[in-house]
Amino acid sequence: MGWWDSGGEGSGDGESGFERQRDELIEQLRKRERVSERALDALAAVPRHEFVPESKRRHAYADRPLPIGEGQTISAPHMVAIMVDCLELEPGQAVLEIGTGCGYHAAVTAEVVGGENVYSVEYHSSLAERARDRLAKLGYGDISITVGDGHDGWPEHAPYDRAYLTAAASAVPDALLDQLRPGGIFLGPIGDRRQTLVRIQKRPDGSTERETFGGVRFVQMQGGT
């Protein structure tokens, strides 16, 4: 996998300008955040500017969320890196993502585990269609995307080694834990007004171990009852 730049309006200095901004962001995160080189390498490989609306491209390498339509956002790069590490991603793991959005987080995950191992569920068909096209154009066409309610997971491809949310749920969806294999890990922001990043590991006997990693702020997950 690699990264590709289409240039065009709003691209500043073109590919070299975006590369410079990307490199500066990675260095900032390396100094500021306790994240692994594996996570930083994955971020560095994905052209974030290709995943944001043209009008927002000048902000593509700012370390903050940006709107992508349908009331959704692309996550801040530091949060994506933190989630890579909290999930303990390894090559070859089967990963379920809930909330494809623009496809950026899925691409970063694919840089670690391989795109053929990433399965993503998106609530909005318009976002899913655009994400498929964008990911294919950028060399991530082996990522699988479906339209549906993420609370239900994607049982056809279960069990998964890892599952994560890119939007906040009021409670951990039971279906996602059910679709994890023993030893698997779930990660996601849980809560309504106050959200906490929660990691749950599924033990071989089916019981779970829960950890929290502090307060976060994500858009709310769509669907559910």
Automatic annotation (TrEMBL):
Residues 1-21 are annotated as: Disordered. It catalyses: [protein]-L-isoaspartate + S-adenosyl-L-methionine = [protein]-L-isoaspartate alpha-methyl ester + S-adenosyl-L-homocysteine. Keywords: Cytoplasm, Methyltransferase, S-adenosyl-L-methionine, Transferase. Its EC number is 2.1.1.77. It is found in: Cytoplasm. Pfam families: PCMT. GO terms for cellular component: cytoplasm. GO terms for molecular function: protein-L-isoaspartate (D-aspartate) O-methyltransferase activity. It is an enzyme of class 2 (transferase). HAMAP family: PIMT. Belongs to the methyltransferase superfamily. L-isoaspartyl/D-aspartyl protein methyltransferase family. PANTHER family: PROTEIN-L-ISOASPARTATE O-METHYLTRANSFERASE, PROTEIN-L-ISOASPARTATE(D-ASPARTATE) O-METHYLTRANSFERASE. This is Protein-L-isoaspartate O-methyltransferase. It comes from Halorhabdus utahensis (strain DSM 12940 / JCM 11049 / AX-2).
